[in-house]
Amino acid sequence: MSRFWSQIVHELSPYVAGEQPKFGNLIKLNTNENPYGPSPLVLKAIAAETTDSLRLYPDPTALQLRATIARSYGLDESNVFVGNGSDEVLAHTFQALLKHDAPLLFPDITYSFYPTYCRLYGIDFDEIALDDIMSVRTSDYRRNCGAIILPNPNAPTGTALPLSEIEKLLIEHPDQVVVIDEAYVDFGAESAIPLVRNYPNLLVVQTLSKSRGLAGLRVGFAVGESSLIEALNRVKDSFNSYPLDRLAIVGAIAAWQDTVWFEESRNNIMATRNRLALSMRGLGFEVLPSSANFLFVHHPACSAKEIFTQLRTKAILVRHLPGERTNDYLRISIGTDSECAKLISALQTILGS
Ligand SMILES: Cc1ncc(COP(=O)(O)O)c(C=O)c1O
């Protein structure tokens, strides 16, 4: 607290990111990073750009990257916005498209940045309870609202909606923007990007942090009808004209183009996830069906906090999200097979004792 703070700073309750501890030999399964890292072509592209060109500002519109992404969906670059991680893309989206007279709707258990953005920008919101199997029920969103935002798959639960449910939502809310946050879509869900042509109220947000292993480069993007993209550009150009630096632009293009690396990495992660889910069920865990690179799990006989604490003493970091409906659960990111084997062995010890 300081008398120099503005009123809004006094009132903020900032998002708390997962720990990034510095100690070595850690099995880090707490922030949904990709254990395989980026394509070698990304590192090559970044090395090639690490020259005297860094004295020059990057392209403020990141046109080449936007065109690369747009072309892969048969869209125009005017349908794509890029930002410094999808967090920044989402932040601009909240300010540009989600603040209206009626409340914004999102699930009660979801990405915890959403209420933080609402408080930052003064957006009224209603949280819609997940159903008793922890899934989004789209019929619960049939109510007066200014806009809707849903992650698909949802986070931290990992459960996904079929595209038909997203389309139903778009049809039922023709006068509201519907944002689908697809941070984890490449791990087994259906993307809504093909619907962009037919629904001017749809904005899809994705990231290169997860399936392309580039959390450290900070690149995210949105796809939508060009007037929605223009709204995001208006906010961006009132905030920071150069959200992506030169290295991020060339790295992201290389990542997008290396489809072989991308397919291999996500297929490995999905296969490991399915094996880990089986092993955890074998240990008595209830595991929500996951279409993401993490599992959301609960053990009926041992508290999530206790398991979290004991794993931490064994240098295995998972995420425990305090909160009335999440307190009994752990969110576990999918690591390599060997990391997951060590996790299972540690859990056997903890649950046996
Ligand atoms: C649902 C969801 N959306 C967006 C993000 C932001 O990702 P990034 O800013 O790394 O692109 C995350 C990060 O974990 C997330 O879980």
TrEMBL record:
Keyword Amino-acid biosynthesis included in the entry's annotation: yes
GO MF term (any one): histidinol-phosphate transaminase activity
Family: Belongs to the class-II pyridoxal-phosphate-dependent aminotransferase family. Histidinol-phosphate aminotransferase subfamily.
Known EC number: 2.6.1.9
EC top class, as a word: transferase
UniProt-recorded name of the protein: Histidinol-phosphate aminotransferase
UniProt keyword annotation of Transcription present: no
Segments passing through the bilayer: none
Ranges where the Aminotransferase class I/classII large domain occurs: 25-347
Pathway info: Amino-acid biosynthesis; L-histidine biosynthesis; L-histidine from 5-phospho-alpha-D-ribose 1-diphosphate: step 7/9
Residues bearing PTM N6-(pyridoxal phosphate)lysine: 210
Reactions performed catalytically: L-histidinol phosphate + 2-oxoglutarate = 3-(imidazol-4-yl)-2-oxopropyl phosphate + L-glutamate
Assembly, per entry: Homodimer.
Keywords: Amino-acid biosynthesis, Aminotransferase, Histidine biosynthesis, Pyridoxal phosphate, Transferase
UniProt cofactor(s): pyridoxal 5'-phosphate
